Here is the input.
Amino acid sequence: MPTFHDPLWLLLLPVLALIALAGIRKRRSRAIVFSDVSIPRSLPRTFALQVKQFLPVLFHAGMALLIVALARPQWGRTVERVNTEGIAIEMLIDKSDSMRALDFRIGLSRVNRLDATKHVFRQFVAGSDDLAGRPDDMVGLIAFGGYYDDLCPPTQDHDMMLDQLDEIEIPTFEFDDQDRVVNYQYVQEAAKTAIGDAVMQGIKRLENCQAKSKVLILLTDGAQTTGAVQPREAAEAAKALGIKIYTIAVGRNGPVRVPVLDQRGKPVLDLLGRPRTTLVEYPVDTDTLQAMAKTTKGRYYHAENTEALASVYEEIDQLEKTEVKRLDFTSYDEWFTVPMFAGMALVLANVLLVSTRFRSLP
Here is the structure.
């Protein structure tokens, strides 16, 4: 986009044009008296004479270019800069034994609660047809059962964080070479639910984040069964730091199908080769989850299937908007040197020619 830094200098161009016209008229008024005009007409017009009549044009063109140079021609490039005020989001995913329940579907396939949770959370972060994604936000991840695993601090490196999401699994027994269980105590403890401890760790992660707002999303299908911190105490700590907690109770109420596993954690098959299931009921402490959300001015949700869970994330996506500011600025490249040097060259050429080869006597 061309422009001039000091365009008032261009007002000299009409003045220069008037001076040039006055010079042309003055030259035409000069005359030498001949008794017979056929005599000068018969004289040959040399190349030098033809060049000489253009010397004033050379001078005035050079002066015009110098005037343009004084106006400082510039070429502007407009650039759009986007500043975002992102949100820091800490996701807490329950991986206790109850998350094996098979009351969710992805497409036509029946999946457990954990797989459905991971599937929808990935869409929430990376985006899908219904979810815009959170490209400008810092997202962290904690998985918890009886213990919490701080898998990823709040980060904008979402690919790395989602790689950690894929690694979340419900703990199973491991065996040594002599077929002895080597992690029995760990699996027994991991099958429990320490909601309060996980929330406190999420608060610690969000506390030092430089973000416009801080949100903790807690997804669980059970109640607190172990841990040093009670969930309501953790909610009070979050309130004190201005952190909102969105609580999601996942799964159907009442008995649900759970796969039957052998001692190695492999599905037990029936006579037709299908995985066997059994009915189990897992109580959800909805009162506590509702109280946590209310304390921190967040919201409580209950998602009984994959579609409902996706709707929950879609609503959170609308509630927690990232502020985007668009600023336009223009950078300029200076072009005055081109007409300046060209004008100086033309004026200097005129002066040299008039003073030497085309010098005229008064």
Observations:
- The mean pLDDT is 84.
